[in-house]
Amino acid sequence: MHTVIDEFRPEFEHVIEFLKSDLSSLRTGRANAAMVEDIPVEAYGSMMTVKGVGSIQVPDAKTIMIEPWDKALTKEIEKAIRQAPIGVNPVVDGARVRITIPPLTEEGRRELTKIVGKKAEEAHIAMRGVREKIKDEIARMEKDKEISEDERFRLQEALEAAVKLWNDKVREMAAEKEQEIMTI
């Protein structure tokens, strides 16, 4: 690859990382700390995330335990999780909050695969945005006589090959998540 394409590599990687974190927060019927770690909780007069106010453990495939560092925040954590759109019912268990993950229904699984598809499409759109930035940069370089017309064509071919690889990665991640969701 050429340096102009390499310069934008962090932007492609950022899209992949964002998709990875987005997909990890989706509920799959299996307990996962990522489901609750970014839920906003009101603590000390400001908003913090669950991971910022306590420790999160996953003792088994169906349970998430949250132990607040300040026991006074237990009720606030429970309230925040109850209001979050993740479809779980937290229970205060002494000084901890316990969440039991109910099994997904077939209809719920289908809905989640649609959401995965939407998130993958958003990632593809972001990839196209990065590709357009690179194309604009290549055109500018040719206009400023930094590269020849032949070099522009070579760079554009290399760009299309690189974007195809990144888009294949997005499709692969989406397929893995869909498989995970549909596995009972």
Break the fold down into its secondary structure elements and pairings.
Blueprint: H1 3-7, H2 9-24, E1 40-43, E2 46-49, H3 50-53, E3 54-60, E4 63-68, H4 74-83, E5 90-93, E6 96-100, H5 106-143, H6 149-182
Antiparallel strand pairs: 1-2, 3-4, 4-6, 5-6
Helix pairs in contact: 2-5, 2-6, 5-6
Short description:
The chain contains 6 helices and 6 strands, in the order ααββαββαββαα. With 184 residues, the protein is of the alpha+beta class. The chain folds into 2 domains: 100 residues, Topoisomerase I, Chain A, domain 4 (Orthogonal Bundle), CATH 1.10.132; 68 residues, Gyrase A, domain 2, CATH 3.30.1360.40.
Describe the structure.
The protein is an alpha+beta fold. Helices cover 58% and strands 16% of the residues. It starts with a helix and ends with a helix. The chain has helices at residues 3-7, 9-24, 50-53, 74-83, 106-143, 149-182; strands at 40-43, 46-49, 54-60, 63-68, 90-93, 96-100. The strands form 2 sheets. It has a 4-stranded antiparallel β-sheet with strand order 3-4-6-5. The chain has a two-stranded antiparallel sheet with strand order 1-2. The chain folds into 2 domains: 3-24 and 105-182, Ribosome-recycling factor (Topoisomerase I, Chain A, domain 4, Orthogonal Bundle), CATH 1.10.132.20; 33-100, Gyrase A, domain 2 (2-Layer Sandwich), CATH 3.30.1360.
